[in-house]
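Team,

Forwarding the record for the chain on the shared tracking sheet. I've put the sequence and predicted structure together so nobody has to dig through attachments.
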Amino acid sequence: MRTNRKWQQDKQHRKVCQHFRGTVQATAYTGKTASLFNGLTIHSLFRWSHYEHKSTLTQMTPDSKKVTYFRVAHEGIDLFIIEEALVIPPAYFALIDEMMTAAFNPTHKKNAVDELPPFGGKKMLFLGDQAQIPPIGGPAVYDDGRTACESVKTK
């Protein structure tokens, strides 16, 4: 059963996506959450297999078929919203950055402070609930390597 708070969040996501239609791309790690705002899962958005983050064969070159498809499909997007960001394994963030840099900043142009902008220079909004379960198949982004018992003892 969904709580009133979760229902309100889902309603807000739908409003944001409808208001900014065509300039915002929302995605989520699970299909259930993505379906709440008619979005794609992160795997569908980036055209990944469920084991992509473990593959050493993944080639993110600007002229690859996968990157070209992503660039053409999302060139008008100003903001990417990623829901459930705290349950996404950290390796996926590196893949997202690599894919978006290959798609939107293929020449690795640096910004005003002489740094390579993350995520190809696109705006990103990461949403999540720290009370949710940790990611499947990997540590959480916020995981410091200690067990819950160890964390309590040190406080």
